[in-house]
Write a structure and sequence with these properties.
Number of strands: 28
Strand order of the largest sheet: 22-21-20-28-23
Distance between the termini: 164 Å
Largest sheet: 5 strands, mixed
Strand content: 15-25%
Helix content: 25-40%
Shape: elongated
Structural class: alpha+beta
Number of domains: 4
Amino acid sequence: MNNKEEGTRFGTLIPEESTDSMAAAPEDQTESADKDDAFEAENEMIEDESDGIPDEDAGETEEEDTEDEDVMDDESDDGEIPEDEDGSEDMSVSNVAKRRKRKHRKRKTGMGKKPWIIAGSIVGALVVIYLGISAFFISHFYINTEINGQSFSGKTVSDVEEYIKNQVQDYELTVIEQNNETDVIKGTDISLTYQENNDIEDALSAQNPLLWPMAFFEKSSASVTIDVGYDEDALAEKIESVKAVTQEQTQPVSAYPKFDGNSFVVEPEVYGTAVDKEVLTEKIREYITEFKTELNMMDEECYVMPKYTSESPEVQAACDTMNEYCKASITYTMEDENVVVDKTLISTWLKYDDNMQVSLDENAVREWMREFGKKYDTVGTTRTITTPNGKTAEVSGGTYGWSVDEDSETKTLIASIKNGEVTEKAPSYVQEAASHGAQDWGNTYVEVDLTDQHMWYIVDGSVAMQTDVVTGLPTPERETPAGVYSILEMKRDKTLVGETDPATGQPIYETPVAYWMRVTWTGIGFHDATWQSAFGGSRYQTNGSHGCINMPYDQAAALYDMLSVGTPVVMHY
């Protein structure tokens, strides 16, 4: 700063009352000029010395500095130097230096605020830009926006509607069927027209314009209902003409547990060709509304789908349960063979319902046990016998022989299977015989030849006694039944009572005997017959009994002493 400038800044202070007289007072003017020269000289001295004067205000607070600066600013604005109380100018060096120092500090402080001002300006500009973009997205969709699968980034509602209208004009839906068969439904075939609604506007309203930066990081997807008009009858006709609908249809087969010879595994499903017309119609309408161009009937499950597939956990769970059943193995030890009930057989008794709930078919088990009984039961079966005199005969019927307790054994077998038991056992029997051989009555038995009217008592394969007999009169009511039986009871001095005579109401006979050996509960047995005058031959044809085997008294006594309850009795012709 030169002297001239400094003198301009500070100026000369002229009292107000002397202002008007300046022009007419030359002496005063000269005096004033002298004072100006003296002031400028002194001012130069102060400016030169001020650089070496210590800053006495260095320890003052910022507030004080600010206040002093404000005062100086006020004073500087007037271009005047403060006066003392007597009106004289304060021309002390220290005061002038202080004021110059504070002015210098103020200039430096003002320069330090500039970066903050610039930063604030930048932030403000960015906010304006952000809000401007946000305002844009009030009427435009975000970037990365799809509506019904079609990109409409940065588009307006009008843009979307215009696109849809253009699509309607040339719209075609290709229906892809099995075996790569296709059918096409054209918009013109069904009189397709676009009908405006508020769904697109609602989709735009759903987006928050202030959150538009998020669109850079994630896709925005909207599904809107596009109202279209079409001829319902025409569409129904087109659906009915689809090849998948018109061709012969087969039903699907669900995946299911299948026994492969070792275990149950999942048998894969089989897809049929039967069309679910309700689903097909729904999907075609949906695709038309969304202006989709290809409908894959298999992907959209327009066919009747199998309830279970290979991936269905229900099927695998059923397999697991069935395999637990198949862990069981029950071996029946018979006379000349073992009968094994294991996974091969058990697998045929397992079943599952529509919900893949597994159960053991108890009726099937019971039926198997019935067949098992038929095979190994001997009661009433036809058997062959060779008499002591060499005659061979077949004998059927009777009550003696093996008889499996089917009801009891069925329950036991079911429990064993469910528990996964592995065991060997004999079946339980209602009735047992002497052996499991062809002649299950064994080697000790009574034999009666009804044709030859002769009987033998065989003990351990040898004849212990024999005698002629008289059997029942050969009429349906009185003949002696053939078959294999056993001695049911033995009694002395029993009175045999016949059936009641309807005419008299009395038994047709009442006959006392000394030795009674019962064969059937219907009244057939061995006993002495003292009223018979002869035995054997053809006497039974005229003087036959009511079915009993009549014996001579002594032979009846001898047999009674040798027999025991349970001894087999074989009677044959």
